[in-house]
Amino acid sequence: MDDIILITELNDFIFCPMSIYFHKLYGGMDRVLYQDTPQLEGTAAHENVDKGTYSTKRAILTSLNVYCEQYRLVGKIDIYDAERQVLRERKKRIKVVYDGYYFQIYAQCLALREMGYPVKKIELYSMDDNKTYQIPLPEDNGDMMRKFEKTIEDMRSFDMDSFTQSNGDKCKHCIYSPACDRAR
Ligand code: SF4
Question: b/e string for 78-109 if b means 16 or more Cβ within 10 A?
Answer without folding.
Answer: bbbbeeeeebbbbbbebeeeeebbbbbbbbbb
